[in-house]
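pinned: reference chain
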Amino acid sequence: MIYEMTIQVRVSNMREGQSWYETLLSREPDFVPHDGFAEWELLPGCWLQVAEGEPASGSGPIRLGVADLEAEKKRVMQLLSVEDFTIHSRKEVPVKWATFEDPWGNGIGLFQYMDQQEIQNRIVTILGRHIR
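pinned: its C-alpha cells
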C-alpha cells in the first residue's frame, strides 16, 4: 500500500535553489533537516524535496495544479524571471496546462481544470475544505 510520496529535484546552488522554490511555492520549506536539502509538503503526504547536487537531464516535469493558470504564469514570469511559455488546451482534455524550466533545467508544469466547480471539488477532496 502506498500512503505517501516524495519528488526530488536537484539544484547546483542550494541557496539560490531554495530561494527560487520558496518564491514558486509562496512559502518557506516545511523541513530543512541539514544543509543542502529542503522539503515542502505540497499536499497532505506529498512532498517536494530540493537537494543540492547535479540536476538530472530532462527531469520532470513536476505538474502542480493551480486555480488560475494565467495569473500563475504572470507571477512566475515576473518574480522568477521565467521566459514566456505557452498555455495548451485540447477540447477533449478537462485541463489546460503549461510547462517551463527552473534555472537548473528541472521541468515544472502547471495545470488548471477548465471547470471552476471541478477545481473546488478537487480542493475539498484533497484538503477537506474550501479555499479562496
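why pinned: The beta strands are 5-11, 31-34, 37-43, 46-52, 62-65, 87-89, 95-101, 107-113. The chain is about 25% helix and 35% strand.
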